[in-house]
Amino acid sequence: MPQFQMSHQEQLLPNGTSDCDLWRRIHKGINMAFKGEDHLDSLPLPVQRMHLIQVDSVQRWMEDLKLMTDCECMCILQSKPISAEKDEQSELILSSQYSTSDNLQLLLKRAWIISTELTRIAQKLEKNRWQRVHSMTVRVNCHVRSMINEYNAFTRSSSEEMNQLENLLIDKCSEFTAFTERCIQVEDEQMLKSMKSCINETLTTVAQYFGQLIELVLTHEAQNLLRQIESSDSVYITESAINSLFSLTQEGTHLCRIIAKEGGVVALFKICRQDYFRCLYPQTLRTLASICCVEEGMHQLEKVDGILCLADILTDNTHSEATHAEAAAVIAQITSPHLTFTQHLSSFLENMEEIVTALVKLCQEASSGEVFLLASAALANITFFDTMACEMLLQLNAMKILLAACSDKHIVDTPYSRDQVVTILANMSVLDQCASEIIQGNGVQLLMEMLFERSSSGNSAEVAACERVQQKSAVTLARLSRDPEVADAAVKLSCIPRLIKLCRSPTERNNSDSVLVACLAALRRLAVMSPDRLEDSDFQQLVKPRLVDSFLLCTNMEESFV
C-alpha cells in the first residue's frame, strides 16, 4: 500500500487516527480478501473494471445511470413482490432473461459502484461534508440491498455463511445510515468530532463485510461453473460454462486466483484430454491462458502435466489452426519474461524442442496475422526463458522463416508482430552464426525499416510497441555489426544517418530513453567500422564522449525547427 505523508492540514481524530489512515482502513476492509491487491488507489479486484475505466466517460455515465438513479425503487420492488402466488414464476422469468455471465456482469458493475461510493464517502467524511456523507450512505444502502436481491434472484443456492454475511452487511448499512442521519441534526462541532470516530469504525466494517461478501459470491460462482464443466457430458452446457469462466478471468488477476484455487486448471486440462470435446479446445485453452497469469495457476499447470498436454496438442497435426494458436497463447503466457514464478517449469525444458519446432511451423504456415502473433510471441518469450532455444531456432531455419514472414504485410501487419520478430532476432544475434543468416535473408534491410517504425493511430499501447521495435532493432544492429559484412551492409543502407536522427531528434524516438541508448550503442559500433561516414560534430558529440555524457547531451537537446 502506498505510503502517504500527513500534511499539516490533516487533523487527528479523537481516537488518534488521521483521515488518511481512515481511507487506508476502508480500502483494507474492501480488499481484505483480495491479498496482494490492497493498493490505496485501487478498487477491490472484482470491481476493477479496466474496460470500463478505459471507455469514453460519457458512455460509462450512460451505462451506470440506470443503476445510479433507480437503485431505491429497485430495492423496494424486489424486496416486496407484488403477488405471493406468482412469486416463483416471476423469479423464473427474471432469472431466464440473462445468462450466468450477464448476471455476473451486473453483479460486478453493482459492486464497482458500491466500492466507488464507499471511497467517495471517505473523501467527504475527511472534509466534514455531513449532508453529502448521509445522502451517499443512503445510496450505498440501496445499492447493497439491490445487489443482494439481484444476486439471490438468479442464484439457485447460497450457503449459510453467505446468508449470514448478507444480513451482517445489510444491518451494518442500516446502522450506518441511521448514524449519519443523526449527524446532520447535530450542530455542536465537538459532538460531531466525537461521533466521527464511530462513523469511521462503521464505514470500515461496512467495507470489510462488503469485500468478504463479494469474495464469497465470486468463489461460489466459480465453484458452480467448474462443477458444470467437470460433471456435464453436454457440449453445449460445457461450452457455456467455459465461456462464463473466461468472462470471469477478464475481471482481474484475483478472480484468476480464485478459479485456480478452486481447481480451474485441473478441470480445463481434463477437457483438453478428451477427444469428445475437441471443438471446445480453442476456448478452453484461451481460458487457461488467462488463469495462468497468476502463480496459483502455474503451480496447478505443473501438477497436472500441462506442458506435456500442450506439447501434444501443438504437435498433433489433426488439430485445427485455431487450437494450435490458442495453445501457443498458453505457452506465451507461462513463459512471459515479466513473470517471476516460471523457474519451477522444469517439465518445459523436457518438451522444449517439440514445442519450439511446432511453433516455428505454426509461424511458417500461419494464415492470419493473429495466429502469427501468438506463435511468434511464444517463441520470443522462449528465447528469454532458455538460451538453448536460440540454437534450436537457428537449426530450424527460423531466421529465414521470420524474415520471409515480415515481407508479407498480411501476416506481419502490426507493430506488435514486428516487436515479437525483432525480439527473436535480438536474442539470436548473440550467436556468431546468426550474421550470415541475416545477410542471406536481407535482414539488415528489415532492421533498417524497423528504425522508422511509427504509430499510425497514436494509441498508447501501439506507441509503446513502436518504441520497443526501434530499440530492439538498434540493439540487434549493434550486436550483429561486430561482423564486418553486416556492418558494411548497414552502412550502405544509410543506417548511420538514421541512428543520428534518432539520437538528436526526441520526436523521432517518441522521447524514449531506451531507444536513445540503443541507438547510441549501435552508432558507436558502426563508427568503429566506418568512421569516415560521420561528420566531425556527430563524432565529437555522439561517439567520442562516454556513453552517459552523450546520453545527457541528447536528452537535453532542443530540436531545431529551422
TrEMBL record:
Recorded coiled-coil stretches: none
GO biological process: apical protein localization; asymmetric cell division; establishment of mitotic spindle orientation; regulation of asymmetric cell division
Pfam families: Insc_C, INSC_LBD
Ranges where the Protein inscuteable homologue C-terminal domain occurs: 110-562
InterPro entries named in the record: ARM-like, ARM-type_fold, Armadillo, Insc_C, INSC_LBD, INSC_LBD_sf, Inscuteable
Signal peptide from the UniProt entry: none
One GO CC term, this protein: apical cortex
SUPFAM superfamilies, per the entry: ARM repeat
Protein inscuteable homologue LGN-binding domain location: 53-97
Descriptive protein name: INSC spindle orientation adaptor protein
